Amino acid sequence: MLRAGPERSAVHSRAGLPPAEAPGAAAYKEVLGRFCTGLTVVTSSHAGEPVGFTCQAFSALSLDPPEVLLSVQQTSTTWPRIREHGRFGVGVLAAGQEELAQALARSGTDKFRDVDWRPSPTGLPRPEGLLAWIECELVREVVAGDHLLAIASVRALEPLAETAPLLYFRGRFLSAGGAA
Predict the structure, then answer these.
(1) Contact assessment for residue 122 and residue 86, using Cβ atoms and an 8 Å cutoff
(2) Integer Cα distance of 95 and 54 in angstroms
(3) Which residue from 12, 40, 87, 156 has the least number of CB within 10 angstroms?
(4) Which residues does 164 contact at the CB level (< 8 Å), separation at least 6?
(5) pLDDT tens-digit profile of 75-85?
(6) Quick check: 57 and 70 in contact, CB under 8 A?
(7) pTM for this structure?
(8) How far is the C-alpha of 52 from the C-alpha of 47, rounded, in Å?
(9) What's the Rg (C-alpha) of the chain?
C-alpha cells in the first residue's frame, strides 16, 4: 500500500535575480538527449496478463531503506495497471535487447506478443536475457511536471548476466562498445 513520506522542502530565494525563461521542447530534448542513460523495462501483471513499458528514467534512490525511483509519463495507459497491482519488476536491458526495448515502448498493442519471458519467483513477467532483475513494491508517487515519480521499495534483486548494457544516447541505442 502507498505510504506518505516525510514532507521536506527547501526554500531558495531568487531575490534580485531576473526571471528565468524556460527553454523550448526542441532545445530541451537536444541538450538532455546528450545524457547517456541505461534502459530498463518495468513489468507487472494485470487481470492475469503481463503489462509493461520501457523506462530510461530509472535510478537507485536509497540504500537504507533500499528504494528505487522511476519517472513515468502521466499519460501512460500502462502505469495505472501496474500501480493497481502494487508490485512490479525492473529489468536492466543488455546490449542486443533493442527489440525488447522497442516492443515494450509501443502504445496500444499487445506488447508481450513477441517477447520471450517467464514468471519470476513471485510470478511477475520477467523477460529473458536481462542483465539484472529488481522486484519492487510501490511506496508513493510524486507529481512532477508531465511525469510521475514513482518511489518503490526493493523486495528482491538478482544479477542475471555478465555482459554489456544497452544504452540510449541522442535517440539511438548504443552498447558499451559503441552503436548497437
Answers:
(1) no
(2) 15
(3) 12
(4) 94, 95, 175, 176, 177
(5) 999 999 999 99
(6) yes
(7) 0.85
(8) 13
(9) 18
